[in-house]
Write a structure and sequence with these properties.
Helix content is 48%, strand content 11%. The chain is an alpha+beta fold and 252 residues long. The chain is globular and about 55 Å long. The protein binds zinc ion. Zinc ion (ZN) is lined by residues 56, 60, 148, 152.
Length: 252
Amino acid sequence: MAARHDHATDPVLLAGLLQARHGTAFFARKLNELSDADLGAPSLLPGWTRGHVVAHVGYNARAIARLVEWAATGVENPMYPSLEVRNHEIDFGATLSPIALRNLFDHSAIHLNVEWRDLPADNWHHKVRTVQGRVVPAEETVWMRTREVWVHAADLDNGATFADIPTPVLARLLKDITGAWSARGTDRGLLVEVTDQPSALLFGDAGAESPVKVSGPLAAITAWATGRATAGVTASHGGGVIAPVPGAPAWI
Ligand code: ZN
């Protein structure tokens, strides 16, 4: 029986769900501003049209909904059978007609939202496995989706930027990315400084003797950290400015 309201009761989780829904609405708005012809034009992602981005975001909602179903039923239901299937699906999706692409986005987002809404409070702790092999509680699906819709809205390249992304989403994203660098050891000699927050935020190789320091406001630094842009970011080494700003270590 479908409920009208979330079964989740944890206030942090409910706030996260709001953030994901807000991001989904934002992506939908940017998508609606694009004409059908615009969907065939390049996105900000190398080799991907906007159609690829829309297909990816739609299939991502379906894949995340499978994890929520897994948490609901206890029956293993992976995001994708394999990475090859995922990539093939995106290429196929990009060939869909504009109306089919728009329907894919709308229907998949609604379906995921229903799965979230109907997931009993206790099941949010059930463990599921992401396509990267991470075992996480179902709660994590909310953040996985939040990240996708906000970042890929900017990738549509029709006016959305990282400055549109809410500060808590940017902060968590930057923490995720710099955490991944640190786990892989790809941030040696690199210090990342966020300059526009109430207290100074430092990430990267804090123990480096003479680090390359990359500084900027949270939105600009996060865009740089995802490998998308360097606008608003400066780099220095031992007091000297480095230009152009070096690329960030790989994120995914
Ligand atoms: Zn993505």
